[in-house]
Write a structure and sequence with these properties.
The structure is a single chain. Helices cover 35% and strands 27% of the residues. With 220 residues, the protein is α/β, with parallel strands linked by helices. The protein has one domain: Rossmann fold. A six-stranded mixed beta sheet has the order 6-7-8-3-9-10, with helices on both faces. It has a four-stranded antiparallel beta sheet with strand order 2-1-4-5. α3 packs across α4 and α3 runs parallel beside α5.
Protein backbone atom coordinates (compact mmCIF):
# COMPACT_ATOMS: atom_id res chain seq x y z
CA UNK A 1 0.00 0.00 0.00
CA UNK A 2 2.75 2.47 1.01
CA UNK A 3 6.38 2.75 -0.03
CA UNK A 4 8.72 5.57 0.98
CA UNK A 5 12.14 5.79 -0.66
CA UNK A 6 14.79 8.08 0.87
CA UNK A 7 12.19 10.51 2.19
CA UNK A 8 13.71 13.53 3.90
CA UNK A 9 12.48 16.78 5.35
CA UNK A 10 14.46 19.72 6.65
CA UNK A 11 14.09 23.35 7.59
CA UNK A 12 16.62 25.86 6.31
CA UNK A 13 17.83 28.96 8.14
CA UNK A 14 20.48 30.75 6.12
CA UNK A 15 23.05 28.14 5.13
CA UNK A 16 22.01 25.74 7.91
CA UNK A 17 19.75 22.75 7.26
CA UNK A 18 17.98 21.22 10.24
CA UNK A 19 16.73 17.76 9.31
CA UNK A 20 13.48 16.48 10.77
CA UNK A 21 13.49 13.21 8.80
CA UNK A 22 16.53 11.48 7.29
CA UNK A 23 16.57 8.81 4.54
CA UNK A 24 13.28 7.19 5.50
CA UNK A 25 12.77 3.90 3.65
CA UNK A 26 9.54 2.25 4.62
CA UNK A 27 7.05 -0.27 3.26
CA UNK A 28 3.60 -0.82 4.71
CA UNK A 29 1.40 -3.57 3.35
CA UNK A 30 -2.36 -3.48 2.92
CA UNK A 31 -3.87 -4.63 6.23
CA UNK A 32 -0.86 -3.76 8.41
CA UNK A 33 -1.25 -2.24 11.88
CA UNK A 34 1.93 -0.24 12.54
CA UNK A 35 3.01 1.86 15.51
CA UNK A 36 5.57 4.67 15.23
CA UNK A 37 7.37 5.40 18.50
CA UNK A 38 10.21 7.61 19.66
CA UNK A 39 10.98 10.58 21.92
CA UNK A 40 9.52 14.03 21.40
CA UNK A 41 11.11 15.72 18.39
CA UNK A 42 12.01 12.42 16.71
CA UNK A 43 9.90 13.23 13.62
CA UNK A 44 6.90 10.97 14.32
CA UNK A 45 4.12 13.49 13.63
CA UNK A 46 6.02 14.86 10.63
CA UNK A 47 6.21 11.37 9.11
CA UNK A 48 2.50 10.85 9.74
CA UNK A 49 1.69 14.19 8.06
CA UNK A 50 3.68 13.16 4.97
CA UNK A 51 1.93 9.78 4.82
CA UNK A 52 -1.41 11.61 5.12
CA UNK A 53 -0.44 13.93 2.23
CA UNK A 54 -0.85 16.96 4.49
CA UNK A 55 2.79 18.00 4.05
CA UNK A 56 4.22 18.42 0.56
CA UNK A 57 7.55 20.06 1.50
CA UNK A 58 9.86 17.02 1.51
CA UNK A 59 12.14 15.13 -0.86
CA UNK A 60 12.24 11.51 -1.93
CA UNK A 61 9.67 9.13 -3.38
CA UNK A 62 6.29 8.17 -1.97
CA UNK A 63 4.03 5.55 -3.56
CA UNK A 64 0.48 5.07 -2.26
CA UNK A 65 -1.69 2.39 -3.88
CA UNK A 66 0.80 2.46 -6.78
CA UNK A 67 0.28 6.22 -7.23
CA UNK A 68 3.53 8.26 -7.26
CA UNK A 69 2.49 10.85 -4.68
CA UNK A 70 5.76 12.78 -5.12
CA UNK A 71 4.73 13.52 -8.71
CA UNK A 72 1.14 14.57 -7.99
CA UNK A 73 0.00 18.16 -7.72
CA UNK A 74 -1.60 19.43 -4.46
CA UNK A 75 -5.16 19.00 -5.75
CA UNK A 76 -4.50 15.37 -6.72
CA UNK A 77 -3.00 14.69 -3.29
CA UNK A 78 -6.06 16.19 -1.59
CA UNK A 79 -8.32 13.94 -3.65
CA UNK A 80 -6.34 10.84 -2.65
CA UNK A 81 -6.51 11.90 0.98
CA UNK A 82 -10.27 12.46 0.91
CA UNK A 83 -10.95 9.19 -0.86
CA UNK A 84 -8.79 6.78 1.10
CA UNK A 85 -7.49 8.28 4.38
CA UNK A 86 -8.96 8.95 7.81
CA UNK A 87 -6.75 11.07 10.10
CA UNK A 88 -6.98 11.40 13.89
CA UNK A 89 -5.09 14.57 14.79
CA UNK A 90 -3.43 15.08 18.16
CA UNK A 91 -5.06 18.52 18.34
CA UNK A 92 -8.41 17.22 16.96
CA UNK A 93 -8.72 19.68 14.00
CA UNK A 94 -12.49 19.80 14.34
CA UNK A 95 -14.12 22.67 12.47
CA UNK A 96 -15.23 25.22 15.06
CA UNK A 97 -18.12 26.58 12.97
CA UNK A 98 -19.69 23.12 12.50
CA UNK A 99 -21.66 21.10 15.05
CA UNK A 100 -20.58 17.61 16.07
CA UNK A 101 -23.12 16.18 13.61
CA UNK A 102 -21.81 18.39 10.79
CA UNK A 103 -18.17 17.53 11.58
CA UNK A 104 -19.02 13.84 11.28
CA UNK A 105 -20.94 14.36 8.06
CA UNK A 106 -18.06 16.23 6.41
CA UNK A 107 -15.93 13.23 5.28
CA UNK A 108 -19.08 11.54 3.97
CA UNK A 109 -19.83 14.58 1.81
CA UNK A 110 -16.74 13.70 -0.28
CA UNK A 111 -18.25 10.32 -1.13
CA UNK A 112 -20.95 9.63 -3.70
CA UNK A 113 -23.66 8.87 -1.13
CA UNK A 114 -27.33 9.64 -0.75
CA UNK A 115 -28.15 12.04 2.08
CA UNK A 116 -30.21 9.36 3.83
CA UNK A 117 -27.23 6.99 3.80
CA UNK A 118 -24.96 9.70 5.20
CA UNK A 119 -27.48 10.49 7.94
CA UNK A 120 -27.63 6.81 8.89
CA UNK A 121 -23.84 6.56 9.17
CA UNK A 122 -23.63 9.73 11.28
CA UNK A 123 -26.33 8.43 13.63
CA UNK A 124 -24.52 5.09 13.91
CA UNK A 125 -21.26 6.88 14.78
CA UNK A 126 -22.97 9.11 17.36
CA UNK A 127 -24.39 6.00 18.99
CA UNK A 128 -21.17 3.95 18.80
CA UNK A 129 -19.12 6.70 20.46
CA UNK A 130 -21.90 7.58 22.95
CA UNK A 131 -22.05 11.23 21.86
CA UNK A 132 -25.69 11.39 20.69
CA UNK A 133 -26.40 14.08 23.26
CA UNK A 134 -23.57 16.23 21.86
CA UNK A 135 -24.65 16.20 18.20
CA UNK A 136 -25.87 19.82 18.14
CA UNK A 137 -22.96 21.24 20.14
CA UNK A 138 -19.92 23.00 18.69
CA UNK A 139 -16.34 21.86 19.46
CA UNK A 140 -15.79 24.79 21.84
CA UNK A 141 -18.63 23.44 23.98
CA UNK A 142 -16.95 20.03 24.39
CA UNK A 143 -14.28 18.80 26.79
CA UNK A 144 -10.94 17.63 25.43
CA UNK A 145 -11.96 13.99 25.79
CA UNK A 146 -15.26 14.59 23.99
CA UNK A 147 -13.44 16.37 21.14
CA UNK A 148 -11.06 13.39 20.91
CA UNK A 149 -14.00 10.98 20.57
CA UNK A 150 -15.52 13.12 17.81
CA UNK A 151 -12.15 13.29 16.04
CA UNK A 152 -11.81 9.49 16.09
CA UNK A 153 -15.42 9.05 14.96
CA UNK A 154 -14.85 11.46 12.05
CA UNK A 155 -11.69 9.61 10.99
CA UNK A 156 -13.33 6.18 10.79
CA UNK A 157 -16.89 7.07 9.72
CA UNK A 158 -16.31 6.60 5.98
CA UNK A 159 -14.46 3.27 6.39
CA UNK A 160 -11.16 4.58 4.96
CA UNK A 161 -8.56 2.16 3.60
CA UNK A 162 -5.88 3.88 5.70
CA UNK A 163 -6.32 5.28 9.23
CA UNK A 164 -3.56 7.56 10.54
CA UNK A 165 -3.75 8.32 14.26
CA UNK A 166 -1.53 10.75 16.18
CA UNK A 167 -1.80 9.91 19.91
CA UNK A 168 -5.44 8.83 19.40
CA UNK A 169 -6.17 8.22 23.10
CA UNK A 170 -4.11 11.07 24.55
CA UNK A 171 -7.02 12.91 26.17
CA UNK A 172 -9.21 9.92 27.06
CA UNK A 173 -9.47 8.12 30.36
CA UNK A 174 -8.17 4.55 30.36
CA UNK A 175 -11.51 2.81 29.70
CA UNK A 176 -12.29 5.06 26.72
CA UNK A 177 -8.75 4.58 25.44
CA UNK A 178 -9.14 0.80 25.50
CA UNK A 179 -12.45 1.09 23.64
CA UNK A 180 -10.80 3.15 20.90
CA UNK A 181 -7.93 0.67 20.57
CA UNK A 182 -10.37 -2.27 20.44
CA UNK A 183 -12.25 -0.40 17.70
CA UNK A 184 -8.99 0.06 15.76
CA UNK A 185 -8.26 -3.66 16.22
CA UNK A 186 -11.69 -4.54 14.82
CA UNK A 187 -11.34 -2.15 11.87
CA UNK A 188 -7.92 -3.62 11.14
CA UNK A 189 -9.37 -7.14 11.20
CA UNK A 190 -12.01 -5.92 8.73
CA UNK A 191 -9.29 -4.74 6.33
CA UNK A 192 -8.27 -1.20 7.29
CA UNK A 193 -4.56 -0.39 7.39
CA UNK A 194 -3.65 1.55 10.55
CA UNK A 195 -0.58 3.61 11.40
CA UNK A 196 -0.52 5.18 14.85
CA UNK A 197 1.91 7.42 16.68
CA UNK A 198 1.91 6.79 20.42
CA UNK A 199 4.05 6.87 23.56
CA UNK A 200 1.69 4.33 25.16
CA UNK A 201 3.15 0.82 25.34
CA UNK A 202 -0.31 -0.73 25.81
CA UNK A 203 -1.58 0.95 22.65
CA UNK A 204 1.55 -0.14 20.78
CA UNK A 205 0.86 -3.76 21.76
CA UNK A 206 -2.21 -3.73 19.49
CA UNK A 207 -0.02 -3.30 16.39
CA UNK A 208 1.76 -5.90 14.27
CA UNK A 209 5.09 -4.09 14.32
CA UNK A 210 6.76 -1.04 15.82
CA UNK A 211 8.93 1.48 13.97
CA UNK A 212 11.26 3.46 16.26
CA UNK A 213 12.41 6.93 15.24
CA UNK A 214 15.29 8.86 16.79
CA UNK A 215 16.43 12.29 15.60
CA UNK A 216 14.64 11.76 12.30
CA UNK A 217 16.17 8.34 11.57
CA UNK A 218 14.49 4.93 11.66
CA UNK A 219 16.58 3.08 14.26
CA UNK A 220 14.66 -0.20 14.43
Amino acid sequence: MIRLVNAEKYFQAGNTKTFVLRRINLEIQDGDFVTIMGPSGAGKSTLLAILGMLDGAWSGEFYFLDQPVHKLNPRQRVELNKRYIGFVFQSYHLLDNLTVYENLDLPLSYRNMKSSQRAGLVCDALDRFQIVGKKDLYPSQLSGGQQQLVAVARAVIANPKLILADEPTGNLHSAQGREIMELFKKLNQEGATIIQVTHNEQNAAYSHRIINLLDGWIVS
